[in-house]
Each structure stands twice: as structure tokens, then as C-alpha cells.
Write a structure and sequence with these properties.
The protein is mainly α. It folds into two domains: 3-114, Helix Hairpins; 126-236, minor pseudopilin epsh fold. It has helices at residues 3-22, 49-73, 81-86, 93-114, 126-136, 139-152, 206-209, 213-220, 226-236, and strands spanning 157-163, 169-175, 193-199. It has a three-stranded antiparallel sheet with strand order 2-1-3, sandwiched between helices. A hairpin with a 5-residue loop joins strand 1 (157-163) and strand 2. It starts with a helix and ends with a helix. The chain binds manganese (II) ion (MN). Manganese (II) ion binds at residues 55, 59, 109, 199, 201, 203-204.
């Protein structure tokens, strides 16, 4: 490869990755395992490379495989996973739980990779920062509320920052792979569009943090992709 073609290919790859992050939701997420937007070791020392590799290559891939099986069973392989989890009532009864668990798992993890970045930055900016401050009092108060929700989630699940239908922000938590978009599953008071979420399944932290979930949560703030949170806030409003 000569230098000119290398530069051209590099530029195209860069443009592609920017577009895929910014339009991931608008374009739908399909049934492919998305590439991690950074190397598995890029979040060290906060999240270790082996956890990232197993979490992405094995756990996320397994959710997609089982979701694909469920969608094949009902002839809906081309359906948008986000649309499916928003309307689980429309999924035939015998596959509802599979789509809830594995569709939720696929959507949640696809977003989770983009909610982290190697240089996460100190905190939110712009309109998202103003909304977080006016809702929670301060960025630190928001982090405390969110961390408490993540710490207190019994067993496996997620904590979320959501934009509710009235445009207000709220912190919620769901068990298993449930997502705040799941109408009829999540209590109405917890429904909304996630703009940030943390996975508190043990597979997300056990290799490095063992039983110390609060240490994982504290470290995770160092890799939060606030630029993505800001974009999702604008899109959800
Ligand atoms: Mn996970």
C-alpha cells in the first residue's frame, strides 16, 4: 500500500467511525455484533482488557445469537431490535421473554460500549450539563444518585440516566437486561430514553473488582463518554 492510499483509507475509516457513533440510534442497530469503538485495553486501568474482551466478544455475541434465534422463530430477523423492545406486546407470546432478555441485552450493550471512551473527560458540557445540574443540584449530586442506584440494584441489572416523555431527566434502575424503553415491563414512572447506563452484572467487573461493585462504579466514571451523553440528550429531547 502506498502512502496516498493509506491516507485515503485511514480517512474513510475515521469518517465511518464518527458517523456510526452519531447515527447509531437513527440507523437502527441490526443483528451484527458492533465493533468496540476502541481497543479492549483502552479503558485500562479502570476497566481491564480481559473483562472488555469477554464482555464484548462472548457475552454480547451470545445475546445477539439468542435474539437471532428468537427472531427467526417468528420470522422477524429484519426487525429493529430497539423497536422490538419498545413494543414487546407485539412479539408473539412464546418468544416475548427471549426478545426481552436477549433483545435488551443486545441494545443495552451496543449503547454501553459507546457510553465509555478512553478519555472520558471530567464531566458533561452544554445543555446536558445544565439539565443535570438543574435536576440533581450538581454534577456530583447526580453522580451520587446514579451510583447509589447502581450499587443498590440487587443482583444483575443496570442503572440509567433517562429523558422522560416530558423532557425531564431521571435516574432509574432495571433488573436483568430490561431497558427503560420497555413499556409494559418497566413501571410507567421509570419509562424513558436512556442517555447513559452502567452494566452492574458481575461479568462487567468481577475479574478486576470481585465483590467490590462500588469500586467498579467509582472507577467507571473515569471512562464515561460525556460527548456521547450530550449527543443522546439532544437527540432524546
Ligand atoms: Mn453485560
Amino acid at each position: 500500500m502506498n502512502r496516498r492510499s493509506f491516507i485515503r483509507i485511514g480517512g474513510a475509516a475515521l469518517a465511518g467511525s464518527v458517523i456510526s457513533t452519531q447515527t447509531a440510534r437513527a440507523a437502527g442497530i441490526g443483528l451484527e455484533l458492533p465493533k468496540l469503538p476502541y481497543a479492549p485495553e483502552a479503558l485500562e486501568p479502570h476497566i481491564d482488557a480481559m473483562t472488555m474482551s469477554i464482555h464484548h466478544d462472548k457475552h454480547h455475541a451470545a445475546y445477539i445469537a439468542k435474539l437471532t434465534d428468537a427472531l427467526k422463530a417468528i420470522g422477524k430477523e429484519s426487525a429493529d431490535p430497539v423497536a422490538l423492545i419498545k413494543s414487546l406486546d407485539a412479539v408473539p407470546k412464546d418468544q416475548q421473554m427471549a426478545v426481552r432478555n436477549h433483545g435488551g441485552g443486545h441494545v443495552n450493550h451496543t449503547w454501553f460500549w459507546n457510553w465509555m471512551a478512553p478519555a472520558g473527560g471530567p464531566g458533561p458540557g452544554g445543555k446536558a450539563a445544565a439539565a443535570i445540574q438543574s435536576t440533581f443540584g450538581s454534577i456530583d449530586d447526580f453522580k451520587k444518585t446514579f451510583s447509589d442506584a447502581a450499587t443498590k440494584r440487587f443482583g444483575s441489572g443496570w442503572a440509567w440516566l433517562i429523558v422522560k416523555s416530558d423532557g425531564k431527566l431521571a435516574v432509574t434502575s432495571t433488573p436483568n437486561q430490561d431497558n427503560p424503553l420497555m413499556k409494559g415491563v418497566v413501571p410507567d414512572s421509570d419509562l424513558g430514553t436512556p442517555i447513559l447506563g452502567i452494566d452492574v452484572w458481575e461479568h462487567a467487573y468481577y475479574l478486576k473488582y470481585q465483590n467490590k461493585r462500588p469500586d467498579y462504579i467509582a472507577a467507571w466514571w473515569n471512562v464515561v463518554n460525556w460527548a456521547e451523553v450530550g449527543r443522546q440528550f439532544e437527540a432524546a429531547k
